[in-house]
Each structure stands twice: as C-alpha cells, then as structure tokens.
Design a protein that fits this description.
The complex is a heterodimer of chains A (247) and B (273). In chain A, 34% of the residues lie in helices and 24% in strands. Chain A has 247 residues and is α/β, with parallel strands linked by helices. Chain A has a domain of 67 residues. In chain A, β8, α5 and β9 form a beta-alpha-beta unit. Chain B folds into two domains: 41 residues, no CATH class; 229 residues, MetI-like fold (Orthogonal Bundle), CATH 1.10.3720.10. Classes of the chains: A alpha/beta (247), B mainly alpha (273). Chains A and B meet through β7 and α2 of A and α9 and α10 of B.
Chain lengths: 247, 273
C-alpha cells in the first residue's frame, strides 16, 4: 500500500496531494515539468520533509507530522533511480551496484552473489568491471536500476526513467521495465511526462498540475477524451495551457 | 593550401603576435633566470656534501616534520569548515568565511606579531597558559602554529570550491542506498572532491614549508628547534653560503614537485567533471 497525504510550500505554488494505492502496485505521477512530481518522490524518499501530512508505504509510516514521527532517508529502504541516474563516477559497475549493500554492511559473499544476480537479471553481467563513464545511456539506466534493486528495497522510485534514452532503446526498456515491475512485486512510484510511459507502467495514474492531483485512475479512466487538455494533447498533438489562477 | 590561406588572412595580426611573444619571453626569463642562477651555483656534489651539514640537516628535518604536521592539522580542522561553508547557510557564514580568508592577505610578519600577542608569555591567552607552565612562543609548536595560521586558507578555499562543485544528487543517491550522512561524506563526497582536497593540501604543505615572516616573529630562529629551511637560508647567508644555496635548491626542487602534483591533480579533476 502507498498512502501519501502531504502539503509542502514550493516556490511558485503549494504542493497538496492525497494519493492512495491499495496493493503493491505501480503509481505513475504524470504531468508537465515543474508540476511537483519529483518533489513527491523526494518527500517519499525522505530527501525533503513535508510541511504537514503523512506518508505510509506498506505498514511503515515514513513521516507523520501530527504524530511528530519521521524516519531517516537510509532507514526508509527506497530504491531511487534518479533522472540522470547519479551513478558514482569513481566506481565500476560492480561497485555501483554493490554500494547499497556495502552501505548496509552486508557480508562480502552476499554482496558478490546479489550483485551478479541483479546484473544478470538486467543483462549487464558482462559490464561489471567497466567504469560507468564508458557506458551508453541504456546501459547506465540498467546499472542504476540494478543498484536500486540490489538492497531489496521496500519501494522503487523512478524519476523519468526513460526520458534520457533514444526512441528504439526507450521502446525496449519500456517493455523490460513493465516485465520487471510485474515480476518483482515491489511497489513503485514512477514520475513521467510521457503518456505512453504512464499507460505502460501504471496500475494507477495521477495527473499532477501545479502541485495538485487533477485526474486519478487507471489507464482507461485517464484516456477518456475531454477530461483534461494535457491528456488530449497526446491525441490532438497540441496543448495550449489555460491560464491558472494563482493559489 | 589552407595554411597559406590562413597565413594570408591572419597577416594583420602579426604585430600583435610579436608583441605577445616578447611579453611571454620576458615573463619566462624574469622567473627562469633567478632559478637558473641558483641551480647553476650548486653542482650535485656540493648539494650532497651540504646534506651532511648539521644546520642543513636540522632545518630540512624540522621543515618536513612541521609542514607535514601543519598540513594534517589543517586537513582535520579545515575539511569540516570547508564542507559546511560550501553546503550550509547559517547566521554568520560570511564572517567565518572572511576570517578564514584573512591570513591570505595579511603580511606574515603581522601574523607573527598577532600570534605573539595572543600566545606569547604575556599575551591575551598566553598569560593564562603561562600560569600552568605552558609556553608556546619560541618552541616547535609555535612554528607549527605560525604555519597553520598562514597556510590554512589555501586548503580551506580549495576544498570549499571542490565541495561546492559536487552535484548533491550523488549524496542523495548514497542516502537512499542506505548510507548515513557520515558514511555518505567519506564514501561519496570525499572521493568526488579528492582532486581538489589533495591539491589544496599540497598547496598548504608548500606554503607551510616556505613560511618565514610569522615563524621568525613568533618562534624565533633556534637551530633544530624552530629554524626551518627558509630561516636557515637567511641565517646561513651571513656565514656559510654553501649551506644557504643547498637549502635553496632543495626548496626549489620541492616547489617544482608541488607544481607538477597540482597540475596533474587539477587536470584529473577537469577530466572527471
């Protein structure tokens, strides 16, 4: 279960969202740049603290401003894949994937087994000795995902996971990601501005605009035409943003 | 073809090019001639023979020990200051930034006098230390304190710039992967800033090694105790010229090594980013 009900004052508007995903499903936060999607991911990861509200994943309460509880970033056990991947440039592929396990003081044998297992699952078993600077975009993407999955996180957080890839790689990764998320049974929150990505991944899709959820539902609910210009643009091809009153 | 055309097109730049070439040659000669004069005066056998001289040996050992100690202390105290000033906003940050930078512009003799007035026998702090039988001025500790005072900004400034240049997303990634803030700092932040940290440390070592003004004011000029290499060069100049020359050449060699190390490190940092 993912339960997010938070507010946070941002520079241009106040983020105010209530999102609830019952099972270990995938939540997609859809919306244009600057809508507050990544802020929600950072609030779940603990990199930002909400002004008010509560975040719960499974049976663990990450933060509750009323009860005054907040667990640290490292205790939340999230697997965060950042938009630019944030692979450690001074480490090899192996060391990057192993980093999460090593930070948690996992024994050497377990680290080696787990890294090899994750790398094989993502088809990067042959790259373990490479420096990350020498990898292609698609390979970096896989390393970042393997690194996030290796410590067996309680929730996956993916920030625009496919946006940096070219179109053919993107198509392939989209299929692989969907299969991986279904097989992994790990709840996930995916941030994207691409409707196709949203439809491919999301059990539940929330369209975010200026810090608020404007439409929420499964793929069928989202695809109903005339609901919102952001959705319609993918069918018509243009999106003229309506002037929004400041909050 | 292209080269001929380029020559024709750039013909108008010729006087400017000649002027720049003359300026470059003059600048290189200005720095190069004194160093060459020094090196030519000291053949290798004289250098080796001088190393047997107790004045030279004492000064060399004392300089290496005190400059290394100063550098280590500056790294220990300067790294947290550099990191906090690169990353955090807090009241009085500008004041602390300015205070840590002051020794760069302060004449070393003034620094030495200030240290003497603070930690000398009748100084602001020294008078109380003296009650417990602790004397700092004119001891090896005074040499180290003078070096730290004068050389620390070189490390703090360089480390601060390196920390400020690191994308925070790497630190965020480490935190989400389970690293505590302490582990994140040593496993991710320091490796990312290592080239800057090392070149700052090398600069600090070099500055500490060459310290003269503050040391002579605050620590005096006692062979084996406070007489570092620059002080020994000055002292020997009036008597044993060979010792003075040998020490000078050793300092020139160390300076060259420092410059090479810094160049390699900064190029590496440039390549990494």
């Amino acid at each position: 279960m993912i339960d997010i009900a938070v507010t946070k004052a941002l520079r241009d508007f106040t983020l105010d969202v209530k999102i609830r995903v019952p099972d270990a499903g995938t939540l997609v936060l859809l919306g244009e740049n600057g809508a507050g999607k990544t802020t929600i991911l950072n609030l779940v990861a603990g990199l930002l603290v909400p002004d008010t509200g509560r975040i719960q994943v499974g049976d663990r309460v990450f933060v509750d401003t009323v009860a005054g509880t907040c667990i640290t970033v490292e205790e939340r056990k999230t697997g965060y894949v950042f938009q630019n991947y944030a692979l450690f440039p001074f480490m090899t592929v192996f060391e990057n994937i192993a980093s999460g396990l090593r930070f948690r003081n996992t024994t050497r044998d377990v680290v080696v087994t787990r890294v090899e297992e994750c790398a094989a699952r993502l088809g990067i078993g042959g790259l373990l000795g490479e420096r990350v600077g020498q990898l292609s975009g698609g390979q970096r993407q896989r390393v970042a995902l393997a690194r996030a999955l290796a410590p067996e996180p309680g929730i996956l957080l993916l920030d625009e996971p496919l946006s940096a890839l070219d179109i053919p790689t993107r198509e392939a990764m989209r299929r692989e990601f969907s299969a991986l998320l279904e097989a992994g049974k790990v709840p996930a929150i995916i941030v994207t501005h691409d409707l196709q990505d949203a439809l491919a991944f999301g059990d539940q899709i929330c369209l975010i605009e200026r810090g608020r959820v404007v439409i929420s539902g499964d793929a069928d609910a989202i695809l109903q035409k005339g609901q919102h210009p952001f959705i319609d643009q993918f069918f018509i091809g243009t999106y003229r943003k309506e002037k929004t009153e400041p909050y | 073809m292209t080269t001929t055309m380029e020559r024709i097109c750039r013909r108008g730049n010729l006087p400017l090019r000649i002027l720049i070439a003359i300026l470059v040659v003059l600048a290189v000669l200005f720095i190069g001639i004194p160093i060459a004069a020094l090196l030519l005066q000291v053949p290798p056998d004289l250098l080796l023979a001088s190393l047997q001289d107790p004045v030279v040996l004492d000064a060399l050992c004392l300089s290496l020990v005190t400059a290394s100690t100063s550098t280590l202390i500056v790294i220990c105290f300067g790294t947290p200051i550099a990191y906090i000033n690169a990353r955090c906003r807090y009241p009085g940050k500008k004041i602390i930034d300015t205070i840590t930078d002051i020794p760069v512009v302060l004449p070393p003799a003034v620094a030495g006098l200030a240290l003497l007035l603070a930690f000398g026998r009748r100084g602001l702090v020294g008078q109380y230390l003296n009650l417990y039988g602790i004397e700092i001025a004119f001891t090896t500790i005074a040499v180290i304190m003078a070096q730290i005072f004068v050389a620390s900004p070189f490390y703090i400034r360089q480390a601060r710039t390196s920390f400020a240049g690191i994308n925070r997303v790497y630190e965020h990634a480490a935190r989400t992967l389970g690293a505590t803030p302490f582990k994140t700092f040593f496993s991710v932040t320091v490796p990312l800033a290592i080239a800057g940290i090392l070149s700052g440390a090398v600069m600090t070592f070099a500055r500490a090694l060459g310290e003269f003004g503050a040391t002579i004011m605050f620590a005096g000029n006692l062979q084996g105790k406070t007489q570092t290499m620059p002080l020994a060069i000055y002292g020997a100049l009036q008597g044993d010229m060979d010792a003075s020359l040998a020490l000078a050449v050793i300092l020139v060699i160390i300076s060259f090594a420092v410059i090479i190390v810094i160049k390699v490190l900064t190029e590496k940092e440039g390549a990494d980013t």
